[in-house]
Amino acid sequence: IMLHSTLALSFLLIAVSSNLAMAIKKEKRAPQTLSRGWGDEITWVQTYEEGLYQAKKSNKPLMVIHHLEDCQYCQALKKAFAENEEIQEMAQNNFVMLNLMHETTDKNLSPDGQYVPRIMFVDPSLTVRADITGRYSNRLYTYEPQDVPFLIENMKKALRLIQTEL
């Protein structure tokens, strides 16, 4: 009987410690490098290719944010983006998310130039949505911090377009 309870106890300890290790691992994930400050709770994909794959697989639109560290407009937009609960919630639940600090080879992602910040949507059929644009005619896919409500509308539009087209 003694052996049996010792065995049971050590199994219990193993189970608890592996769960604890997993919990610690989860906690440690907070300063996530892929988020680059756009939202640590969001699951970010690493590459455009991975984003396309995930979008198709999950039937969610891919949101691609082009930005650079030393761009003050990017930093200002990033702050507004990260602080907006509605954006963060949608980004976590309804989108495949990618932020890039380099250009992709896909020319469809730079229809009017390779400027930053630039946010574009790709639907699960892998079509770049050239019809979801920002407020500026000279840089169609740029957003400024005060455009956050407009960006939210565009995120909702990207979600609506999938539902209506598939």
UniProtKB/TrEMBL annotation:
Gene3D superfamilies: Glutaredoxin. GO terms for cellular component: endoplasmic reticulum. It comes from the Eukaryota. One of its GO terms (molecular function) is dystroglycan binding. Residues 1-23 form the signal peptide. InterPro entries: AGR/TXD (IPR051099), Thioredoxin-like_sf (IPR036249). Keywords: Signal. Belongs to the AGR family. This is AGR3 protein. It comes from Ciconia maguari. The gene is Agr3.
